[in-house]
Design goal:
alpha+beta, elongated, 3-stranded antiparallel β-sheet, 138 residues, two-stranded antiparallel ribbon
């Protein structure tokens, strides 16, 4: 009797770190500079690992929306809420259903700046974004 070949199991945190690295590289190649982090958590007693992108300026969010195949209605002086909705629509168009992005208002050097905080992504959702940004599937 032959023994079945053993497939190595990748721990969730290791898989998330690899997906995060690929996502950062794909976003950089798409001209969007945004770092991401791996965030562990617990939901109903089950350990989960998610990938969280850094907050994005409105212009970067619009670039990412276009890179994901979404539409941008206004590019000059866009409203943050509109940019967040368009980004959410682009994600949903790819089949990525997550909580909507959050608009964050901050003050930098005395100036008000609106930013978009993207939703945290599961590892499969992050890999889907990488596929789209790399042009493997649209």
């Amino acid at each position: 009797m032959a023994t079945p070949a053993r497939t190595p199991v990748t721990p969730p945190h290791t898989a998330a770190c690899a997906a995060r690295k690929r996502l950062d590289e794909a976003m950089h190649r798409a001209g969007i500079s945004a770092e991401s982090v791996v965030v562990p958590g617990v939901v109903e007693g089950i350990k989960i690992t998610r990938i969280r992108l850094a907050s994005l300026t409105l212009a970067r969010t619009q670039r990412l929306t276009l890179a994901l195949g979404g539409t941008v209605t206004r590019t000059r002086d866009a409203l943050a809420v509109t940019v967040a909705r368009e980004f959410d629509a682009a994600l949903r168009g790819l089949g990525i259903t997550v909580s909507p992005p959050t608009v964050v208002v901050s003050t930098v050097h005395g100036r008000r700046a609106n930013k978009i905080l993207p939703p945290s992504l599961s590892v499969p959702n992050a890999e889907r974004l990488v596929e789209v940004l790399e042009g493997d599937e649209r």
